[in-house]
Amino acid sequence: AAMALAQLMVLGAGCSCGDPASARRRDGGGDASNAGDSEFPDAWYTLPDTGSFGRPDAYLVPDPDAYFHEDPPPSSCYPDGGMGPWPDPPGGTPECPDDRAREGCRCGPVGTTTACFPGPRRNRMRGICRDGVAECMPRDEFGGQWGPCVGAVLPTPGVTRGAAACECFSMGRWAIDNLSPCFVDYGTSGVYAVSTFVGAGGGAMCPTSITGTPPPAPEAGTVWSADTLNVDCAGQFHLCYTLRAGSATTPSDTDCVVAETCVDTWYPMANVEQTLPPLPSWTSSDSACARSFRDTGGYGEMSVEGFSIECDDVGDSSGTRYVFNRVNYCPLRCNDTPSLPECVGCMMGGSGSF
Known about the structure:
Elements: E1 4-7, H1 20-23, E2 45-46, E3 61-62, H2 64-68, E4 106-107, E5 113-116, E6 132-140, E7 143-146, E8 172-176, E9 181-185, E10 191-195, E11 197-198, E12 204-205, E13 227-231, E14 235-245, E15 257-267, E16 274-275, H3 287-296, E17 298-308, E18 313-314, E19 322-329
Antiparallel strand pairs: 1-8, 2-3, 4-7, 5-6, 6-7, 8-13, 9-10, 11-12, 13-16, 14-15, 14-17, 17-18, 17-19
């Protein structure tokens, strides 16, 4: 049995995430119109003891909304629909927060360098996005100012999926231990596919009690495969592996489906490998599709939908699943005659990465 290593970017499903100005108010109500005060632009302040709004003085502390109004950090959404707290605001000011090293903001001493990222906070260090380096440049007798952020990698404009989007679920791996299907030829009754199971020796095996009447039944009391998940965002996810007849390089929505097996999981901690519930066994009902897959090849489609903990919708704009990887399968004859032209570079059972 081959192992599927799916390097993935996924995005998550919506939750009731309100506008930062309304969702994160700490005073329980009142007028937030002072957010646009001319003397203190875009800066809201709260009294730490009473929670009432007022102008900043020695007894007041910055409210996170002031720092995050224009460029919020990733949100936190939970399975019950609740929204978690934002992190504490960074030091500095809303215009020149300490976590951004914005070009033109004060710094010191001159000549020092720091990590910087001129893009949105929610994209920082996700997918291809990487920090750059800013140097404290001379400004006046009172100190320096941050120069341009050199070497930073930002999201690719117009890209909404994959590592180049730098969204939640930009990178990771869904590893499936067993990818091998079993094909049973019933002669005039047609060709059917059924899930294999991992035997005592660790290899994929066809069911041991296949009858002369289709469709074949999976091995009783077994599952198709163990699997693990390791991705860059926590959340509630519905993962599916779909066997289709067709070409992995030129897939089509009209490619017939041999079989599909899915698993639901709450993935609580990003970038930590977690064992998922096993993928259930399956059997095909479309004999023509199974024959086509066996004789001409096909692919295994890995897809996901659900909610990320950062309030992203895992799926495309129409609400369908996001396909993050396709695993190529060669015709069954390549297993016996790998020297055939159509079998060059093939591995029976399929393997692939995203």
